[in-house]
Structure formats: C-alpha cells, structure tokens
Write a structure and sequence with these properties.
Chain lengths: 132, 132, 132, 132, 132, 132
Amino acid sequence: MATVPLIEHANASPSVRAVYDDIKQLRRVDDVNNFWKALANSPRQLEQVWSEVKTVMQPGALDALTKELIYVAVSAANSCTYCVHSHTAAARAKGMTPEQHAELLAVIALASRTNGLANSLQVPVDPQYQAG
Amino acid sequence: MATVPLIEHANASPSVRAVYDDIKQLRRVDDVNNFWKALANSPRQLEQVWSEVKTVMQPGALDALTKELIYVAVSAANSCTYCVHSHTAAARAKGMTPEQHAELLAVIALASRTNGLANSLQVPVDPQYQAG
Amino acid sequence: MATVPLIEHANASPSVRAVYDDIKQLRRVDDVNNFWKALANSPRQLEQVWSEVKTVMQPGALDALTKELIYVAVSAANSCTYCVHSHTAAARAKGMTPEQHAELLAVIALASRTNGLANSLQVPVDPQYQAG
Amino acid sequence: MATVPLIEHANASPSVRAVYDDIKQLRRVDDVNNFWKALANSPRQLEQVWSEVKTVMQPGALDALTKELIYVAVSAANSCTYCVHSHTAAARAKGMTPEQHAELLAVIALASRTNGLANSLQVPVDPQYQAG
Amino acid sequence: MATVPLIEHANASPSVRAVYDDIKQLRRVDDVNNFWKALANSPRQLEQVWSEVKTVMQPGALDALTKELIYVAVSAANSCTYCVHSHTAAARAKGMTPEQHAELLAVIALASRTNGLANSLQVPVDPQYQAG
Amino acid sequence: MATVPLIEHANASPSVRAVYDDIKQLRRVDDVNNFWKALANSPRQLEQVWSEVKTVMQPGALDALTKELIYVAVSAANSCTYCVHSHTAAARAKGMTPEQHAELLAVIALASRTNGLANSLQVPVDPQYQAG
C-alpha cells in the first residue's frame, strides 16, 4: 500500500542489511518496521535518517521519553498517520503511562485550539517575546 | 494588525477584567499579552480558554516545562507565529535552557523530516502499533 | 515584501487592467487589493482565479456570508495570514456581526482541538459514516 | 487501529457511561461513535470535549448547519480523516443537501487554491484589512 | 469509504460521461480513477478541475514530469493520501526513475526539516529576499 | 524578531565561523542569511543542516533548479514564510524565469485545490496506485 516496494531483509543489499541489523540490535526487535523497509529504496536516506534518529533521540538535555512526546505532537499536527502510530508505541516502550498519554493529548488539543484561534485572530506578537 | 480590536484593561467589561486580573496575578505580570486582548472580544472564549490553560498546563503526570515544549512543537508544525513566540518565551520562563531548546528544535526538525518522508512514502502502519 | 513585484494599474497590460476594472466595479472599490496585484504577474492566473472567485462566491445553495465564513476557516487552518485578513474583512463587508465572528472562532477552535485529538488517537472511521 | 483501546459502554466507568448516555439521548443513537470511545481513556477530556461540543455547536448567531460546514472545512484543511467523515455525516443529518455539499467543496477548493497562491506569493496584508 | 458515492460511467449523466471519455482517451486508460468518480457528484467541479488539470499540467516553461514532482511535494506536505498515491503513479508514468524519486523524497525531507526549524526559530526574512 | 538571538560572524565560535565561511565561499555572498545566524545557536544543527543542504541540493538525477522548485512548493504548503522567500530567491539565482515561476505557482495552486477536494471527499486510493 506504499508508493514504493517494501524491501525485506532477505532481498536487501549488504549496506541496507547492515542498517537493518543495527536497528534490530539496538531496539532488540526481530524485524525492522515498515518505515525502514520503505526508506531502504534509497540506501543513502536509510543510513542518514537512522544515524540522525540515533543521535537526536538519545537522552541529553531532554530525556528520551520527553523527546518521543514531542515527536508524537509534531506528527499529530502534521497528520502523519504512520508517525503517530510508531512514536506513540515508542513512547509506551520508553515508559509513557496512560496518565502521561492523556496529558500529552490534552496539551496537543489545547495547543491546536489556541493555534486555530491565534491564526484566525492574527494576533500581533508582543515585543517582549522577541529574542533576536 | 489583528482581525479584531485588542481590548485594553481600561476598556474591558468587569468579567473580562476579572480574567485579566487573574492572569496578571498568577503570572506576576503587569499586563496580559495580546492573545488575551484579542480573545476578549468574546468574553466566553476568554474565560473558557484561560480556564483550560490553567488546568491543562499545570504540573501533573507531565511537568510544566515538558508541557510547554510540546506546545511549542505543535505550534511550529501548525505555523502559528504568535504561539511559537509566546510559548518559547513561556518555556524559557519555566527554566528551558539553551541546550534544551536546541534539542527541542532537533526533535521538531527530525519529526518534520520523517513526517514528510512517511507521508510521501505512504508507509502502511505495522500491525504491532495498533492498540485499539 | 512579496516574492514578486506588485503590479499597479498604471503599469498593467490591457488584459490585466480589464480584470482590475471588473474587480473595482463589482466590489465598488477604488483600487484592487494586493493579492490581485501579485497574481497579475501571471495574467492567465489572474483571469482564471478572478473568474472562479466570481462564480464560486456568489449566493447559491449557500449564501454569500456562509461562504466567506468557510473561506476564513480554511485559511486559518492553512495558516494563510493574507487570506485570513482579506476574507475576515470580506465577511464583515457582507454583514458578519461580532457575535457571528465569535461563533465562527469558537467552531474553528473546537474543530482544531478535536482534529488534534482524532489525529493523535488515530480513531478508525465508523462504518455508518462512509457513503461511497 | 487506534493508538488507544476503544472503551465500550459495558466496560466503562460510571462517569464515562453518564457521558455516553447523554450523547445517545441527545443524538437519538444506539451507540456513541468511535471518537468518544477513544477519548474515554481520559474521562476528563471526554466530559470537557462533549460539554464544549454541546455548547459551541448549538444554534446561536450561526445556525447548526453552518457550524457543521465550518467544521468540515477546518477538518479537511487539517487532513483529519475521521473528522471529515463524522462531520460530513453530521451536516447531512442536519439537512445539508447535495447542492450545499457541492458548494461547500467548491469554497474549500477555492480557498485551498488561493491559500497556496498567497503563501507562495507572500502577499503583504493591505492596511485596510487590519482591525486591531 | 468516500464521503460521497462514487459515480460509475454506467450511471453517469451525459455531461459527466463526456468528461470521463475525454480523460480515458487522453490518458489511454479503460476507466477513470476514483477522484473523478467522487468529483462527478458536482458536474461543474468535474469539468472545471479536469479542464484546469489539462491546461496546467501540460508541458510549458516546465516539463510535464517536473510538474508532477511539484504536485507530489505539495500533496505530501498537505498529507493528502490520495493525491500522493495518484501523482506518484503519474510521475512514474511520465518517466520518473527510482533515482529521481529518491531525490524528490530527499528534497521533501530536507524542506520539511528546515520548514520546521524556520517556523520554530521564527527567522526574520532578509531584506534581499523581498521582491515586491 | 526571532525566538533566538542571531549570531553574527564577529561573535561566532570558530566552528560556526567555519560553516559561515564555507557558505559564503560556495554561494559567493558577503554574509550568510538569517536562517544560518539563528541556527548557529546550535553548532551541531548548523553543521548538520548545511552539510545536508550541500548534499541534497546539488545536481543529480534532478537538476538544481528543479530541486529549488520542489523546495518552494513544500515550503508554501507548510506556510513557512522564511523558506518561501529564501528558496524563491534561490530558484531565481539558479535561473528560474518569470514563466517558470508562474507555472510553479499554477501547479501549487492546482495541487492545493485538489488536495482540499480529495481530503474533503476522502477518496479511497485506487488499487493500481499501490506499489508496496
């Protein structure tokens, strides 16, 4: 149902297999999810995105769960069905409780509502909010 | 520059003033920001949104700063200029460090990128991601 | 500040002037607004969009004001600053009252909120909602 | 297929059942639709959103059908599959004719087109459109 | 699964059939795709959109394939599932190679990423970029 | 006016200066544009995005101008004011003619329109469009 064929491990080139194996080992899963199988049509994209995911999503000044919550929020605002599903699952795997999920949804809902209002009202930015 | 007049405290009705005073007291500011002055054209919306903001944004299963980060993320994805400005400032006021801001931006950038990819590839959702 | 020069009546070609004159006459204004001056860089687009605006926005099964309200709603959701401004003004010119504006904003706000929730929850469509 | 389990009446808590029963009675339906069953994972959200829907969508300065048309327009612009389906059905239930539906679509299409143009052209807002 | 019935050739009015036949002849296909069958509920929209598609998408200052690539890019950014599928197929039919598809996706991904960044940073437009 | 300070060359760290100098040399400009000055608050993002821009935007299976056109299209759909301005200017610098610009806008307008229609109609994807 994708716009490109999904590339399975058995049919993958060595460089694609290497990324698949890295994903499987790091995430302790038996198979990579469909996003990577679609992305593998461009081995460069596959390597580049996976490298960026590993770097950006690791704990740093923000912890790993907070990063997943932000990821879900962006994906919902961008109507990315696949990304909402995969990163909600990732957030759960990183310990998101039902109470945290409910609060995430409440903030997304509130922000969406006030975004709609501010975009309708075309509110001018207050001078004190401008940093640069 | 808004699509409605901004209502200043001096010209506000008693019910609008009551909300303004509550905002000023809770946030320890001398004046409310433009969003509320625009929203005050509908006193019901003003009361309802402020009440929701107070409820949703208070610390709970997620802390107050995490909620602001999620708010900024949704607002950036929705291209809401005003909301990005006001909630970036709110996040700073709640302690967001430059390092945390940089990581917030890195997650927004990565999510936007993979949203674009998944929406272009129309990747089918893996069965294990479906909860309901 | 546009990405193309704005073409004033004095510098316009005869075919562009003809559209400008039609807009001015129909709307009883002294000058066309900036959208048309930018669009005039492509005379075909100018004619085609103006023709479509005249056809679609005239009263039919829906009255002219209802159509402007729908226009504002789409423009706010698409974060189109210019379009929100121009069509809010158009709705006022067609009789939108402050009470109607407030209710328009309330529906936009509610829809934005539940859009954010449904996109986060990825709610499956109920069978009874499917017509085709 | 949702990111949360759908909560059926039989498994719902008393406060959730009370909302379900209110929805069923007001809408004269045998069961609530999936949106509410997903939202019920957070009883507070369920109560709050349902209360807001009842208040905002009732006839006021705008009639109930006009409000549904606006709702569909926002939902289409936000690519909310579920919301487009449920509110198109709601508009039909409130009397939307095929001719009105066709005109709604024509306005959404025209607004989407000019939003795309104005966002590409970055047309500056004319001074006369600014109210605040 | 659409919000309107899909109108098949056998049940179509003469004016709808004429458009269907024109599409089938020009594209050398046995049947029109679902978009047209849904749009046919409004014969005017059907004729108007098909006429615009024929005019806009023909080779001109930009070749036909470049136009399809732009179409896919807009559709992905707008989360239009149907449009991404149909115009990716159209691009392939016009000769898009897997290498070109991969580069199209890379540009969409990069633009989405920097859009997210610029919208988060609210970067002011440099004076030299303003033409009008 | 940004949400972060803009970092000028004189105040930049050596690693930031190195990127600035590379941009200036490659683009033959006297100063980098504001996007980079904002991004420089996170030297890692600056380096990473600039590296990706250089790789992705160079001529390959698609030529450099086609890539800029796609970039503008995504940016317009995402309502990224800054990105539309900077990449329209970049397209001009790479040889975009006014006729090509007009056709780019016509395709963006048409795609936006049919995106709005397909999202309103919720047209099911035809089986022949599914590759994976």
